[in-house]
Amino acid sequence: MGFRSSAAICGAVIALAVSVSIARCEAGGVHSSAVDNAASGETIVGAASMYNPFKPGKEEGGPKTASGERYDPSVWSAAIKTSLRKKFGGVQFGAKPKYALVEAVGKKVIVRINDVGPLRPGRIIDFNERTMRHFDPSLERGVIPDVKVRPLAGGDWTPGPVG
């Protein structure tokens, strides 16, 4: 009888732990301290802007990113300044995208660095539309100053807000 009770309690504890873990992932993504610990390399500080090659009148190069993927405004991605390519493991055609921790206006997000570009002076990163809306919901700013970008080690990250 004691063994059955222990097994039932153990099963309940495991089920609770799994449900809390799933809820935590859905609510806020990865815990901030875990991401901070995985950030490698120096912090790059500069301005961020948004790009969307499908909007009329834009100067962007087209719908294909440097990694070979098609631009998608609904995912968490960005283009890093071409001169920073090596700091992010060499974003290249056909290569797996890299990841970065981006901080601005009191928010943090993990983005896939799947593109590069010459960008305008002072800008270090161009967000796709979803990422920019995270930092500027109305898209009225156009440019976000003092953005901090740090490469993340490894390729097993889930892009999105960091809680």
TrEMBL record:
* Signal recorded as keyword: yes
Organism name: Bradyrhizobium canariense
Q: Which residues form the RlpA-like protein double-psi beta-barrel domain?
A: 45-145
- CDD domains membership: DPBB_RlpA-like
Give one Pfam hit by family name.
DPBB_1
Q: What is this protein called?
A: RlpA-like protein double-psi beta-barrel domain-containing protein
InterPro entries referenced in this protein's UniProt entry, alphabetically: RlpA-like_DPBB, RlpA-like_sf
Which UniProt keywords are listed?
Answer: Signal
May I ask which residue range the UniProt record assigns to the signal sequence?
1-23
